[in-house]
Amino acid sequence: MEMTPSSEICSVKVALHIRPLVADERLQGCKDCVSVVPRLPQVQIGTHSFTFDHVYGNGGAESSAMFEQCVAPLVDGLFQGYNATVLAYGQTGSGKTYTMGTGFKDGCQTGLIPQVMDTLFNKIETLKHQTEFQLHVSFIEILKEEVKDLLDSASESKSVVANGHPAKVAVPGKPAIQIREASNGVITLAGSTEVAVSTLQEMAACLEKGSLSRATGSTNMNNQSSRSHAIFTITLEQMRKLHSVSPVNDTPDEDMGEEYFCAKLHLVDLAGSERAKRTGTGGLRLKEGIHINKGLLALGNVISALGDEKKQKEGMHVPYRDSKLTRLLQDSLGGNSKTVMIACISPADINAEETLNTLKYANRARNIQNKPVANR
Ligand code: ADP
Ligand code: MG
């Protein structure tokens, strides 16, 4: 099959995921302050209304619709050589980890990543006769502008259990992971663990291992809140045998060499978007909060710059270098890649201010336009 760069303009999709009120919020007597406009992907909060590509509420059927509509096309694109990024954005407790599936609760998984893995391996199974596949995964987190490996066995921390939750103890002396850019623009992570996987179970084991070693910190807002960006990356390499097809009986006859594709899918559980001052603990936590905002701020600026077609034509600089997060995602945001942002919100009135901030941030991301070109 001839792979020609698509001329299709692909905008970043922005979906909204509204979780139900959680038990804690119901106990506090919270009211639902977000209403979904019937038959439209639109929500209202107070006097504001926002339209997205999709709006999802709670419930199992909605979770599979979200996968089918937002993420399955990115998995398909991976097989055609397009890089892709899925970002879960929102305040701590809004459902990012639940949505992505980077958390493990009682050993049970929910979310998009398990559905990605299922789809990926099913597709490989149907294509494996004509194509050779190689899969690698990495799982890192960015905390305080430092990249940490969540899959490195050597630095496996002694897990201590505090308040019933595993917490990580840093191992000193590990060289930091460096983000590097090759001359062809491909971003690599020097020093990070890339695990070769050949089965769904092996990939799921990497997800579980990294999820469990992810750093968590306590804040006023949520004692399991994560202050880091967690990035689970699946790299798919394909070697496809090319044959010319006999016009007589449609059977392949002459060997025409091989075609190679490599593409990666980043699945990103972003740090909580709440302002540092809301965490209110000062000292170390406050410092982390400020750094995290740096990544989210840079991400917002990058996405907004990519969406401004006029400025792009004028050769406007896209500020990827402003944070580790945007630097790492540079070859998978804009350019030849497909991007989906899932903005997660709580419907509770006590969170209205942060919910409004999330809706504004996500709304700003909706203009991005990319021209996908397959990696060769
Ligand atoms: P975040 O990662 O944004 O801090 P979590 O994913 O940890 O938030 O979600 C916070 C709480 O809300 C968790 O107890 C989670 O199980 C629950 N939750 C989140 N989204 C949903 C949902 N769609 N349906 C039911 N419960 C949810
Ligand atoms: Mg989380």
Tell me what you see in this structure.
The protein is 30% helix and 29% strand. With 376 residues, it is an alpha+beta fold. Helix 2 (60-79) crosses helix 4. It has helices at residues 23-27, 60-79, 96-100, 112-127, 200-213, 276-279, 283-307, 309-313, 324-328, 352-364; strands at residues 10-11, 13-18, 35-36, 42-45, 48-51, 54-56, 83-89, 131-143, 146-149, 160-162, 165-167, 178-181, 187-190, 195-197, 229-245, 252-269, 337-345, 369-370. The chain binds adenosine-5'-diphosphate and magnesium ion.
Named once each, the bound ligands are: adenosine-5'-diphosphate, magnesium ion
Main sheet specs = 9 strands, mixed
The backbone outline, from C-alpha atoms, is globular
Span between termini = 14 Å
**Element order, helices and strands?**
EEHEEEEHEHHEEEEEEEHEEHHHHEHE
Low-confidence region ranges? 1-10, 156-162, 217-225
Number of strands: 18
Task: Provide the helix percentage.
Answer: 25-40%
The whole-angstrom Rg is 21 Å
Tell me the fraction of residues in β-strands, as a range. Answer: 25-35%
The total of helices stands at 10
Round the mean pLDDT to the nearest integer and report it.
81
**What class, by secondary structure content?**
alpha+beta
